[in-house]
């Protein structure tokens, strides 16, 4: 039996629950590709699953990890568009044979896209989840010319891609919060001007945001950070305006403000399409994002490599995400192959 190395979660709790082990290499079904993972990226949902929070209901394997860049090794009988040796990217979610903290994964071909040319596997691994989330928010919001957008925590992968999409679409005023100089630099690189960036650590943040806006409320708010800052996002929205919730971490105060203003809420969930078995949405959207990357409309998120496949690299990534030490970079682990 062919085997592979993987990092497994032995129980909910702290990062010491991860260990490296040998598992059987997955065998692709007729509609699946067997992919040799070359790099895997980390997402906040990973540590939320590890902690046993609500997101753990989406676990289907003790191997966590939800996005990858790699090489097709084998194709199932009913797959099309891919050949062994193709470089690919995917957001596997909970649909793969296992998570992406492993050397191999079997995944439905409809969820896979060809990797953008000219970038490394490590950089490509940072694209799928951020790209899919940002595109869903952008396409569903349908921001009109002249409308303004407020974003919490826009320096990360999702925010940087979303800002680039909005700028390319002609959105003239976008404001985002930042907490340190690294996040400020990431937001400027994404296309914001210094006057569109505000520190969330300030006192009377809502009043200062509104002063910058000349007391004009925003047309849209996008919450990527969650927690108390989500209430600030709701507070600076106008009546009957739109709130895109990416985190599911809003507060009771946030929901009160949105209800009182009659705002409408867009829940941005990449699970939804898998739950509805619309797997082609993932591959087709990723292929579109690849085209935008090749055209220079968007650029990949900045990455920080935590090391090669190991329990230590996984632990480090989880601790950095929990401590908010990513500084606007996507954390990535490579495979020693």
Automatic annotation (TrEMBL):
SUPFAM superfamilies xrefs: GroES-like, NAD(P)-binding Rossmann-fold domains
Domain of life: Bacteria
GO molecular function, one term: NADPH binding
Entry protein name: NADP-dependent oxidoreductase
UniProt cross-references to Gene3D superfamilies, sorted A to Z: Medium-chain alcohol dehydrogenases, catalytic domain (3.90.180.10), NAD(P)-binding Rossmann-like Domain (3.40.50.720)
Domain called Enoyl reductase (ER): residue spans: 13-333
Keywords: NADP, Oxidoreductase
InterPro entries, per the entry: ADH-like_N, ER, GroES-like_sf, NAD(P)-bd_dom_sf
A Pfam family it matches: ADH_N
Record bears the keyword NADP: yes
